[in-house]
Known about the structure:
The complex is a heterodimer. Chain A is an alpha/beta fold.
Amino acid sequence: MSNGAMIRLDALGKRFRGPGGVVAALDDVSLEIAEGEIFGVIGRSGAGKSTLLRAINLLERPERGRVIVGGVDLTALPPDALRRERRRIGMIFQHFNLLARRSVFDNVALPLELAGVGKREIRERVTPLLELVGLADKAAQVPAKLSGGQKQRVGIARALAVEPKILLSDEATSALDPQTTRSILALLKDINRRLGLTIVLITHEMSVVREICDRVAVMEAGRVVEQGSTFDVLTQPAHPLAQEIARGLEPELKLDQLFGDRFSATPVPGGGTILRIAFTGPNAEAPVIAELVRRFNVDLNILSGTIDYIQGRPYGVMKVEVTGAVEPVIAHLKSLELGVEVLGHVRSALRTAL
Amino acid sequence: MSEALFEQLFDSLDDTLLMVGVASLVALLLGTLLGVVLFATTEPGLWRQPALNRGLGALVNATRSTPFIILMVAIIPFTRLAVGTSIGTGAAIVPLAVAAIPFFARLVEAALREVDRGLIEAALAMGATPRQILGKVLLPEALPALARGLTLTVISLIGYSAMAGAVGGGGLGDLGIRYGYQRFNPTVMAAVVVVLIILVQLVQSLGDFAARRLQKK
């Protein structure tokens, strides 16, 4: 399976009857997820991400289409065979779904018990898993005594107990604080590398995707509206929703509040222009700003600037107010293959005062 | 208090314990089974059978809405079939069990519904069979609630067993009615009530203790 897709979703369709009529949770969704990659699905709540994730192990059976995992068409399997295939797909949950009356050890042992693994082998397999997730000293505790991050670590160890090829993550960090989220994401990345595990995660947090996903799909109203490498989708989003989500990572700049009456949606003679410059492509690291000032004799006022690392590649975004002749500036930036966009215009402060 | 009264009190306590004990045991076994079926027949991941669920639900409700004294008389043919007689302590056990089974079954069903649905989903994702989901996840997780339900059932049975005198079942309630009430003997009446209070108190404390132990694990 190394060159084929680990997971192939083929024209999935599913509708739900909601209070406001029939809603499409999955509308002709096709996706291919390669072995060993971390694939993210992002969208707002109700976009169908949860249904999509649950279609992979058929917890939610689609009405149309096929789900092919590791070359096996799950949609065609009888219940017994489906249960065997499900044992090769681990799953972790937003609310952990641990058994309150079982110890940490016994929670991790549960999938092994269900698979009919003997007591001695269970002991041999659970202990290293608890070490892997850093909870070897908590084996005898009950989940109620653990923090949220520790509970999710138990969930991860439990999901890995049957040595799955795939891990499905259902908003696994959404109930955790930012610091714990980072440590859980680091753990997921680590097991992805060490065990060659394919991970599919759904989230509504762009930061989760940026942190660990190789590729990402953006969902809206049951459809995948955009997909690609995380870097491309985040730096050059095409669909409006993808743009909105990607921009969500940048510091919010309310131009009309910043400039008040001076802000204008249309060009103002003698005024300034607000540009958003995205540092992507071959010249992403060139010292552009100083060059603009020297070569084009314009005034530059930096409104905001960020630099981000997405999948290890730097990605900067800067918002500047340019006073002077703006057209040659835009043309120059485009010739450098940087992303440039006009966000608005401002009247000159001097002129307003007059 | 005379020695004869003591003897009668102990004999009656024996009868009560026998009736309540056996009926509770039957309710525990068959009520759990019925409760599990009532729950599982509504669950898509387990054994969804809407028609069966409605049928059993109606039967349970009918049994539970029949006043116990009427139920006891109404099922006399069945009692005779089950234990070979329609009078005596043995004959009183049958209607007590018949009343307790649907009562406990509803408590079992409620206890199972209390378990986080996410656990069913997690177990399904692990490839668990419906039987494993019930045996390894739902019933163990519901144990504290089941212990409280059983306590409630036993105490209700102690109350019902007072009516066993109607079919010659004996027991504390019967003693209280015949000797205490009908023969105007306040000593007997008081003694019976005191013994019943102690009995119910004991059962409740035992049940609370068990539920607490199960909760903490």
